[in-house]
Amino acid sequence: MKQIQWFPGHMQKARRQIEEKLPIIDIVYEVIDARIPESSRNPFLAEIIKNKPKLMILNKIDLADDTLTREWMEYYESQGIECITSNALTGNILTKIYKKTEEILRPLVEKEAEKGMTKRAFRAMVIGIPNVGKSQFINNLSGKNKVKTGNLPGVTKTQSYIKTNSDLLLLDNPGVLWPKFENKLVGYNLALLGSIKDDILPLDDIVIYGINFLLKNYPNRLTERYNIQNPEKLTPVEIMDEIGLRRGCKLSGGHIDYERVIALFLYDFRNSKLGKITLETVKDVFL
Ligand SMILES: Nc1nc2c(ncn2[C@@H]2O[C@H](COP(=O)(O)OP(=O)(O)OP(=O)(O)O)[C@@H](O)[C@H]2O)c(=O)[nH]1
Ligand SMILES: [Mg+2]
Question: How far is the CA of 194 from the centre of ligand 1 (A)?
């Protein structure tokens, strides 16, 4: 496995801006991807936010394996981490998030009331790695498409405040990664789900990693999506050939156009065309 790295200057800057705004923030919403809960937690953000109240948002649950999402929620709760599940694309999650926020910030409200302060809007900062749905989450809470979203890393470039109908003010931030993934698997998980810029990635390796994962954990998905019979008898490259043949990804001369196969597979994997998938289990990561 190759060492993947992506920590451009703008992320360094975004990290500094997060630190600068922190003193005026009441609560941090750390958005993670429910398909890769641990790989999508930035260890450096944890260091920056220190003792600030935090609510972890397991987002994109519509794309993740429901059983494993429940396992992860139970695990985090057992660790005393406040967390909540979210599908930021549909439904309105404001009531649920606001209620949980009020619960977490009750000590702060009581302290301020004792000082004679009237109740004010909570200030929440939304942080996380690129492409986990921070901006979409904010649009959901505000009920409008106030900030730009897109299925690419690095869509949000600057910080911005957004109001909601509840007493809640949100601060959107650009996604931030960290300088080195100690565990190479983390880099591959992030790459496979689109949190790292594709231009700098060994995409063939990433796709082979994804196919191997499916062969081991969900082989029938390859049959359902691409009509490949007995996929477990094939190598990942043979699977790529089969996908290419079935989808007409061919170069002149009849050779397989691997670039197109790669693009097609990544699209399918990232957009749950291969079904709901979670790449890491509590057991794999911690036991
Ligand atoms: N299926 C699904 N898609 C989601 C969800 N939340 C966000 N998305 C999609 O994921 C992509 C990334 O969302 P953004 O909100 O732009 O992500 P971000 O974390 O702000 O990304 P950066 O600004 O690049 O750091 C978009 O295509 C969203 O529509 C979700 O809960 N479910
Ligand atoms: Mg964004």
Answer: 10
Task: Supply the CATH classification number for the domain 202-286.
Answer: 1.10.1580.10
With 0.85 as the threshold, say if the pTM is over it.
yes
Task: Profile the chain (287 residues) by mean pLDDT over runs of 10 residues.
Answer: 94 96 98 98 91 97 98 97 97 94 97 96 98 98 96 96 96 97 96 97 98 97 98 98 96 95 98 97 90
Q: What is the structure's pLDDT at 91? A: 83
Locate tokens 């998938």: which residue?
277
Residues 6+ apart with CB under 8 A from 171: 21, 25, 123, 124, 125, 126, 159, 160, 161, 162
Give 169 Cα–ligand 1 centroid separation in angstroms: 20
Q: Cβ(276) to ligand 1 under 6 A?
A: no
Beta bridge partners of 33: 59
For domain 9-172, the CATH superfamily is: P-loop containing nucleotide triphosphate hydrolases (3.40.50.300)
| 173 Cβ below 6 A of ligand 1 | no
Query: How far is residue 250 CA from its own chain's centroid?
Result: 33
Check residue 163 and give its pLDDT.
96
For the beta sheet containing 168-172, the strands, ordered from the edge strand earlier in sequence to the opposite edge, are 83-85, 54-59, 27-33, 122-127, 168-172, 160-163
Which positions ≥6 away from 214 have C-beta within 8 Å?
A: 221, 222, 231, 274, 277
For the Cβ of 285 lying below 6 angstroms from any atom of ligand 1, the answer is: no
- Report whether residue 64 contacts ligand 1, using a CB cutoff of 6 Å: no
| Every domain of the chain and the residues it spans | 9-172, 202-286
The pLDDT of residue 274: 98
Give nearest CA residue, ligand 1 atom 7: 133
